[in-house]
Amino acid sequence: MPPLRPRLAVIAAGVLLVSGCAGLGTDPSGDASPARSSASPSESPESSAPAESPTATETPEDPDTPTSWGPTVGELEQAQEIVSGWTPEQLAGGVIVGRFHGYDPAEPAAMVRDLHLAGVSVTSDNVTDRDQVLAMTSALADAGAADGRDYPPVIGVDQEGGYVSHLRGIATDFPHFQSAGLAIQADPRLGRRVTREAALTTGLELRSLGFTWVFAPVADVTIGLADPTIGARSPSEDPEVAAQAIGAAIKGYDDAGIVSTVKHFPGHGTATSDSHDTLPVVDSTLAEIEAHDLPPFESAIAHAAPAVMLSHLDLTSIAPGVPASMAPEVYDLLRDDLGFDGVTITDSLGMGAVGGRPTPALQALEAGADLLLMPVDTAVTHQIVVDAINSGEVSRERVEEAAARVVAVQMWQARLAAQRPVPPDVVEKARAASADLESAAY
């Protein structure tokens, strides 16, 4: 696999220049700039230190230094310390985002508390109205506290805009993410601004409803009519336009104090079958994937994306016959070549693309997933992971690594949320942002 790091550096420099010009540079609060320096004021050159001082390489890193994906170094170290004392049952739960049926808040709350789940994904089948949603998210937060956590659980929802909006009628309706790309094509500066504002107000409104995660934005570059799954969910058929939309959206979600999830790596837009039903085969070469599919993900990483969702695709040039979400080679592409250090999460493990595979959760965890999203049976999957840890089939070190990233990003989310209160007129702001996005696009 050819090295992609130099390409990422060029992309990062480009998006930073674009962001600066568009007013997407350092946030006034200083918490969510597109790229984060690893240097801190306390790190001085070795030559300036007294002779008896430790060398620069021995100087501990400032715990307040941000990582490249959000949490500080100190938050990640604290998370690593926390999970090192967890039982196998706690560790197994800490890498699962469960699913549930019905509307009763008590059911998912019990799952989070009793199975120690990282959290749950809420779908349209779990919601009725605003009061019920608030009762559910409150019960989930209480369940996390009852499990001994001083950071919030993952309370996530697909709220992309357009037809993939599981809170329809409860949260503000936004147009398809395609609108972001169209707005940027029409007027790049205005397009990036309205895209960022749409993500900001979406995130704030979700927080007002008790959510901590949003499974958005979609970074897939569609091929148009031959793409049956993504389509208007994609920002554009142009990789560079899509990259600008993703950078602006990540910045908006960060400013809102919610964890965003860039999806579906390394790009679902060229698949000509639906992974909800079957495992799509993508025959693109690595060079084609690099040119067509990766620019939006590179932009996301340059803008400090906290989480990336892995697709269920058979990428014949990288890991033939294995879903990308379960292929170590795909995680290597994301981490080693693109330089992503944040949370990796699978697409839903209840989808047809991975149905019938033996222990898909274990395959994904071993391959490099940090979070296992919506397994078919949450309790059974939890026990499978517990047994695998106890038997050594999956190393405790791998599970601790995964769980620590999740805990760290939840600490970061809680800190941002505390610093950025939801305004009382958030619904009015969200409606205005939705209208502005649609107007700029059409």
Automatic annotation (TrEMBL):
<dbReference type="InterPro" id="IPR050226">
    <property type="entry name" value="NagZ_Beta-hexosaminidase"/>
</dbReference>
<feature type="signal peptide">
    <location>
        <begin position="1"/>
        <end position="24"/>
    </location>
</feature>
<feature type="compositionally biased region" description="Low complexity">
    <location>
        <begin position="27"/>
        <end position="58"/>
    </location>
</feature>
<protein>
    <recommendedName>
        <fullName>beta-N-acetylhexosaminidase</fullName>
        <ecNumber>3.2.1.52</ecNumber>
    </recommendedName>
</protein>
<keyword id="KW-0326">Glycosidase</keyword>
<feature type="domain" description="Glycoside hydrolase family 3 N-terminal">
    <location>
        <begin position="106"/>
        <end position="408"/>
    </location>
</feature>
<dbReference type="InterPro" id="IPR001764">
    <property type="entry name" value="Glyco_hydro_3_N"/>
</dbReference>
<keyword id="KW-0732">Signal</keyword>
<dbReference type="InterPro" id="IPR036962">
    <property type="entry name" value="Glyco_hydro_3_N_sf"/>
</dbReference>
<keyword id="KW-0378">Hydrolase</keyword>
<dbReference type="Pfam" id="PF00933">
    <property type="entry name" value="Glyco_hydro_3"/>
</dbReference>
<comment type="similarity">
    <text>Belongs to the glycosyl hydrolase 3 family.</text>
</comment>
<dbReference type="InterPro" id="IPR019800">
    <property type="entry name" value="Glyco_hydro_3_AS"/>
</dbReference>
<dbReference type="InterPro" id="IPR017853">
    <property type="entry name" value="GH"/>
</dbReference>
<feature type="region of interest" description="Disordered">
    <location>
        <begin position="22"/>
        <end position="72"/>
    </location>
</feature>
